[in-house]
Structures are given as C-alpha cells and as structure tokens.
C-alpha cells in the first residue's frame, strides 16, 4: 500500500496523505485533485477501492490500427491533445502482429471503467471483420466515436473525410492533365473507404466514357508496389492511391518498370501525411483535414460523456487536393 501511495503521489504531484484521503473518501480534497488521483490509479494499473469503482475513470481509449502509416499518429496526436485539454487521459491501443486483439483491448478498457472510446481506423472499416465487440459497446451505451467509416447496423457518431469528394478531386486533376488511362490502387475489397472511392471513380469514368483499372492492396508500401505492377501491365498513365504509403510503393513500382514519375506515370496519394512534400518527387495527394476532424471527434465524445444526446450521423469533412511534383500532363 505504501508503495502505491508513493507512486500515485509522485504521478499527481501531491502528498501521500492527500492520496490516502482520496482513497478513504475523507474530506479536504478538491474535486480536481480527487479526479487526478483516481485517474493516476487507472493509468498506473492499480485497482480502485471497491467503493470507488462505480465511477467512470477520466480515461479514453484511443484506437490506432497501426503506427507505421504516419496519418494515424497524426490523428492520435490531435485527438490526444484535445482530450488532455478537456481533462481526459488517452489510453493508446494499437495493433501489432501477434499482439492484443481489438476485442481484448475493449475488454481491458471496460475493466478500467473508461469514460469513452475513439476508433481511428480498425476492424469496423472492414465489412467482413468481427464486429461483436462494437455491439458490446453499443449495448453498454459507452460513449464512442468512429473515424472514416460507419457500421451500418450500429448507431455510433462518425467523423469522416468525404471519400467521394477526395476521389473526384484526384480524378478531375488527372483528367485536366490529359490522362485517360487512370487506375486505382485501393485497400481490401471489404474496406468501406475503398468501396466509397471505387464507387466515385466508377461514376466519373462512366460519365467520361473512359475505362477504369482497379487493383486491391493492403496498406503497406510493398503491397502498393505489387498492385501497381499489375496496373502498369494494363497501360495506365496515372494512378489514384488509397494512402500515401501505397502511393510511395506505386512510385517504386514505376521506377522498377524502367519508367519515370511523373514523366510516364502520374501518381496521387491520399492523406498528406508527414514528409510527403520531401519525397522524390514530392507527392501530389489529397489532404485529410485532421485538425477540424479532431475537434469534432472530441465534441461528439465529450457531449456523450456528459449525457448530452448527439446525432448518430456521419459528419463528412471536405478534403483538399495538394498538387506537387508527382503529377504532370500525359506524355
């Protein structure tokens, strides 16, 4: 017990006596300090005293599907900072090969009496992945926000970049450059944002009377390279990619084929993640507006935590095409 008191006291910056008063529900401690002590217990992995377990911890689960794609840490940084400003501590949950499953993370968070959960990508973005743990969150009415894909059968508020607009921006840019053989490198076939991008591209291609070549990929640079190699054999002169890492893989595939970017093939990414202006060539990409999206995520989450009803709609944010050196007129 003394070790626990000392560790919690150091974490919060108060005396051990103050921690003891909180744990024993003694008077003389401000609400702010009391909440800080309880949150420190949760963060450090100590169980709250039985009589204090009924209260929600000021912890919020923050799910990032991976850390290799720079867009996810960027979202995480924005959301975590906004949570801290509102007095909540983020608990990072991220997937690694052979690591803790998303469903197990949810159970661990529920044991910690978290106040809410934010998912910035995950199994909910894929229609064929297990969704039972999301159903559990819905049944418990735990404040939850999804980013960039809803689950049709569950009513969670969702904050998304408009995939249709993103695709239209990339398509129109390439068409203005004279490209008629345009390909798409997307995520898996059951990936909801990829399905939306595909539908928008199909509409644009049909309206223009042009063919559309499509390859499905995983989210890595290597998978993007392999998918692009298949499309190059079909004679595409331009590619719209599902993510910036996939676009970098596409650039590598073009060069391995003895071609140049943008001289022979123009490439557009998606996200405008870190350092895309420093690649060779600098990547033309569609920027996700993560700052305003982050503010909306927190507004929806905190409103739920406070018991204020929020619409379980999908809030669409318009992206921005950022033109750099990886696109050029068709040769």
Descriptive overview:
The protein has 331 residues and is an alpha/beta fold. The protein folds into 3 domains: 2-52, Orthogonal Bundle (434 Repressor (Amino-terminal Domain)), CATH 1.10.260.40; 60-159 and 289-317, Response regulator (Rossmann fold, 3-Layer(aba) Sandwich); 163-288, Response regulator (Rossmann fold), CATH 3.40.50. It is built from 11 helices and 12 strands. A 6-stranded parallel sheet has the order 2-1-3-4-5-11, with helices on both faces. The protein has a 6-stranded mixed sheet with strand order 7-6-8-9-10-12, sandwiched between helices. α1 (2-12) crosses α2. The mean pLDDT is 91.
Short description:
By secondary structure, the protein is an alpha/beta fold.
State the main characteristics.
331 residues, alpha/beta, 434 Repressor (Amino-terminal Domain), Rossmann fold, six-stranded mixed beta sheet, 11 helices, 17% strand, elongated
Round the mean pLDDT to the nearest integer and report it.
91
Number of domains: 3
Spell out the CATH superfamily of the largest domain: Response regulator
CATH architecture of the largest domain: 3-Layer(aba) Sandwich
Strand order of the largest sheet: 2-1-3-4-5-11
Poorly predicted regions: none
Class derived from helix and strand content: alpha/beta
Radius of gyration: 23 Å
Q: In percent, how helical is the residue content?
A: 40-55%
The CATH topology label of the largest domain is Rossmann fold
Give the CATH level 1 class of the largest domain.
Answer: Alpha Beta
Largest pleated sheet: 6 strands, parallel
